[in-house]
Each structure stands twice: as C-alpha cells, then as structure tokens.
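quick q for whoever's on today - can somebody do inverse folding on this one?? i tried earlier but teh output was garbage lol. tokens:
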C-alpha cells in the first residue's frame, strides 16, 4: 500500500510502498478515506521525540472498517470510524474513572513482540506512529482508539473530530470547565485554536479574544465565534487583553507550543484564572514562571493533553453538533490533497497559510 514514510527527522515525508498485516486480537483494519495534517505530526517529523524510524505518522484519521480481528466487539465491516491518538487500555484506574486520556497502560493497545509488526517495508519494521499511522491507504488500529460516527458526515470533516476538535474544544469544555459569561484568550488561530474558539462559543463565553501573527486570520476567527482579534507583535498584548477583559481573562489557551507565548498566557489571566498549555513544546524545553503569579495571584497553570477527552463520549457529541449545524467543521478545511502533496501542504502550515489540509486521495 502507499504511505508517507518519515525516514529522517528532517520534516520531510517520502511516499513509498509498504506492507500492512491483517488484524489480530482487537485490531481493526481501516481503509483511510481522510487524514488531517496536524502540527503535532510535523513536530515529531522535525525533532526526535523518541519515535523509532522509519515511521508512518498521521492521527486525524477517518475511514471505513474493512476487516476486524477475532476479539473485536465494538465494530463491524462497513462502519465509518474516526481514529484518535488517545491510547486507552479500558481497565486501569484512570480509564475506569472516565479519564482515558490519562491511561496508565497505553501500550496495551499495541502489539506484543510475538504478534509481529503491523507495518513493514521489505520485511523490516516500520513504526505505526501514535498507534494510528494514518498517512497511508490503510491502517491497523486497536478498537479502543476508534469511534463510530454517522455515515452522513463527510470523511474530511470527520477526520478532524479525532484531534483538532477534541483538543481545542475539549480544552475549553472539559479542562477549563468554562461557564457562560467567562472571558477567554486563544493564542494561535490554527486548526486547534479555531476549535477552542468554537468551544468557547458553545460554552457561552462572553468575550473570546483571538491572537495571531497573521492578520488575515481575523475573518476566520470571527466566523468561528471570536468577539475580538489582536495581531501578535503589535503593541503590548498583555495590556490589550487586560483592557478588553476588565483586568484579565478567566482562561487563556496557548495553542502554539512556544515558551514566550506560554508565559504570556499566565500574564493574561485575572486573579484565580487559568492558563492552559495545549501546544506541543519541543523535548527538553523548560519554562520559567513567576512563583508569585501562582501563589499571590492564584493563577492555575494546566498542561492539557488532547482536550482531556474521552473519545467514546466526546467524538459522537461533536459529530452530532456538526450535523445540527452548531459546530463549524467545513471552514476548518483549507484544502483536500493527494498524499503526494504532503510536504508542500506542511510548508503552507508552517507559514500559517492554512487552517487544515486533509489527505483524501492516494
């Protein structure tokens, strides 16, 4: 099958022919109909986070079940499914409490050495990144990383439910537990940032302040629900936020993964507010925080993984909101591409030219 393979940590993918095994145990073979180009995959392609190479990345997956392993109980051939990088065993303390995003035994979703490799190239192992490996024509995924979605949802839109939607909107709704009337600031108006804006609107935020370097993002941010837009790098952003919100926002969300903007998020919130770090920082990066902000101003600093989402609950919920016309997924998709265009599409993403490109053909 055709796949975009990462052979070096140089941010480039090589489209090659590789082999995929048949499903075993609780694995599901999915024909990939759409896979979004998330910035997290680019981070892993440009820096060594510990992923063995060669590897197939891609985790915003939507497709059709083509074959199931003998122990699969939740899916049947023909189901439309969405994949997610949240790996959950289903029986640890965190999973039983509904916090599948904090699973203590995520490796149980992977194969044992005795079961062989899911992916190979000329007989040699190829890492299935995130357990999803969506940059390919087919993928083998543990059933706990899949969710069935209604057939009416287009595959491109459905693919975004597995990451950018649950990460952005989930951080607002699940992690921050935003209440009607709260004020928020979102730093970074990409795919995840736009979903944070949409989540804030769904939850009833009074002021939704979007911040980005690209002024052309303003129209898109307003379309998703932002009440204000500030161009980063112009004037004192912290002062502007405090003036707009009457002393600081209740919640600030950093969606880029940079230390300076993460530190700004702490300064944007009012006493007792929360700063939420969503963007993936590079390995080994450290961040200094003023201790008095945490003690005297009582600012809560949160690291957020995948929007604190339980995919079996959240993905169907957001799918239904889309079908009701209450969640905008259509405008998240900047363009649909062939897998051969993956490197050019990631170049556009790095320069802020697009919200989301989605592979829909091979």
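ok took a stab at it. sequence:
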């Amino acid at each position: 099958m055709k796949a975009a393979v990462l052979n070096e940590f140089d941010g480039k993918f090589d489209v090659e022919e590789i082999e995929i095994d048949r499903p075993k145990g609780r694995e599901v073979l999915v024909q990939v109909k759409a896979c979004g180009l998330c910035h997290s995959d680019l981070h892993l392609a440009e820096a060594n986070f510990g992923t063995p190479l060669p590897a197939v990345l891609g985790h915003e997956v939507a497709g059709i079940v083509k074959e199931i392993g003998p122990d699969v109980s939740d899916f049947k051939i023909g189901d439309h499914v969405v994949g997610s990088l949240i790996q959950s065993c289903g029986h640890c303390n965190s999973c039983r409490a509904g916090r599948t995003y904090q699973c203590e035994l995520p490796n149980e979703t992977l194969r044992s050495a005795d079961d062989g490799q899911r992916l190979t190239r000329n007989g040699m192992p190829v890492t299935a990144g995130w357990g999803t490996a969506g940059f390919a024509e087919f993928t083998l995924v543990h059933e706990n990383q899949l969710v069935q979605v209604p057939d009416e949802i287009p595959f491109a839109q459905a693919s975004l439910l597995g990451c950018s939607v649950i990460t952005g909107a989930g951080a607002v709704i699940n992690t921050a537990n935003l209440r009607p009337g709260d004020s928020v600031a979102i730093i970074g108006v990409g795919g995840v940032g736009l979903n944070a804006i949409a989540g804030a609107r769904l939850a009833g935020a009074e002021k939704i302040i979007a911040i980005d370097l690209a002024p052309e993002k303003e129209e898109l941010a307003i379309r998703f629900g932002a009440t204000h837009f500030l161009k980063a790098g112009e004037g004192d952003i912290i002062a502007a936020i405090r003036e707009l919100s009457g002393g600081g926002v209740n919640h600030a969300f950093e969606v880029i993964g940079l230390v300076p903007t993460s530190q700004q998020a702490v300064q944007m919130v009012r006493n007792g507010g929360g700063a939420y770090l969503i963007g993936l920082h590079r390995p080994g990066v450290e961040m200094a925080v003023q201790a008095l902000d945490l003690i005297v101003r009582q600012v809560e600093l949160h690291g957020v993984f995948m929007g604190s989402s339980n995919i079996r609950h959240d993905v169907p919920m957001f799918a239904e909101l889309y079908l009701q016309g209450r969640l905008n997924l259509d405008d998240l998709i900047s363009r649909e591409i062939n897998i051969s265009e993956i490197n050019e599409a990631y170049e556009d993403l790095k320069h802020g030219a697009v919200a989301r490109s989605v592979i829909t053909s091979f």
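fwiw The first strand starts at residue 2 and ends at 5. also The chain has a mean pLDDT of 96. so keep that in mind when u check it
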